[in-house]
Specification:
Blueprint: E1 3-9, H1 10-24, E2 42-44, H2 46-54, E3 58-67, H3 75-81, E4 85-89, H4 100-114, E5 119-123, H5 130-138, E6 142-147, H6 157-161, E7 164-167, H7 172-175, E8 176-178
Parallel strand pairs: 1-3, 1-5, 3-4, 5-6, 6-7
Antiparallel strand pairs: 2-8
């Protein structure tokens, strides 16, 4: 298969990338809530992310889904300029992300049901996408999960559901950059 569809859960890739970056810099301790530290200087380079994940395949569609940022945020513009269609949803009143995973499942299901079989490249280790993967597999699509290894288990249901599992850890230095010095 020479064509692909790329679906990105922005928060998953961004937060796990920041955690990975912090660990790469030797920051292995936890925050006050017991969570892994995040490197606030790390940013995704959306153009390079598309190049690396597409792996030379023709990109039929590339969609990035996330939560609506502040008006001054340039992240979505950078993603659009790099070739992504960007879809955002408002957070709920508690600040929690809502409708992002559902949007990815809906968009992905539409693609696998209306386009000729290709490779579905999903950038997230979230188990909420298992129904999409099952539909894609049933419709003869190849399926790839691209995620940081801290966000999934190779023996877990999500990793076992896809055709191929790809660790973003392996391309970390190619898909992001540090905007300032930290720590």
């Amino acid at each position: 298969m020479n064509k692909c569809v790329i679906l990105v859960d922005n928060s998953n890739v961004f937060i796990e990338g920041q955690k990975f970056s912090a660990k790469q810099k030797g920051m292995t301790n936890k925050d006050a809530h017991g969570r892994d530290l995040c490197d606030p200087s790390w940013r995704i380079d959306f153009g390079k992310l598309l190049i690396e994940v597409s792996d030379g395949k023709e990109i039929m569609k590339a969609i990035l889904v996330g939560s609506t940022p502040p008006q001054s945020d340039s992240i979505w513009k950078a993603a659009k300029d790099s070739g992504f269609e960007v879809i955002t949803h408002e957070r709920n009143t508690s600040g929690k992300e809502k409708a992002v995973d559902t949007e990815i499942v809906a968009q992905g299901t539409e693609f696998v049901c209306t386009l000729e079989p290709a490779i579905l490249k999903l950038l997230s280790g979230d188990r909420d996408f298992i129904p999409l993967i099952k539909i894609a597999n049933k419709r003869n699509w190849q399926t790839e999960m691209w995620a940081f290894t801290s966000s999934f288990s190779f023996s877990g249901e999500m990793a076992q559901s896809v055709t191929h599992t790809k660790a973003l850890d392996n391309i970390f230095s190619k898909i992001g950059k540090h905007e300032f010095s930290w720590p």
